[in-house]
Amino acid sequence: MNISYDEKDKLLCFEITEEIDHHGSEKIRRQADNEIERYVPKRVVFDFDKVTFMDSAGIGMLIRQV
């Protein structure tokens, strides 16, 4: 997962480049939680453009972040 932060706009972007299944979603969620606490952004963007597979655990991971 690639992470970028635009300090000017307080925008935190997560480019997820791996499959998001039950096992991987917990790792992604922990990392996203840590970065959100670190930067305290105004907006968070999850870019799923390069994700080839996502199951219901992946969807749950995203909903939890909102």
Written overview of the protein:
This protein is of the alpha+beta class and 66 residues long. The chain has one domain: 2-Layer Sandwich (Transcription Regulator spoIIAA). The protein is built from two helices and three strands; from the N terminus they run E-E-H-E-H. Strands 1-2-3 form a three-stranded mixed beta sheet, with helices on one face. It is globular, with a radius of gyration of 11 Å.
Work out the strand percent. Answer: 15-25%
Give the overall shape, derived from the CA principal axes. globular
Task: Summarize model confidence as the mean pLDDT.
Answer: 88
Tally the helices. 2
Tally of structural domains: 1
Instruction: Count the E strands.
Output: 3
CATH topology: the name is: Transcription Regulator spoIIAA
The structural class is: alpha+beta
Low-confidence parts lasting 5 or more residues at pLDDT below 50? none
Helices and strands, with pairings:
Blueprint: E1 2-6, E2 11-15, H1 22-39, E3 43-47, H2 56-65
Parallel strand pairs: 2-3
Antiparallel strand pairs: 1-2
Helix pairs in contact: 1-2
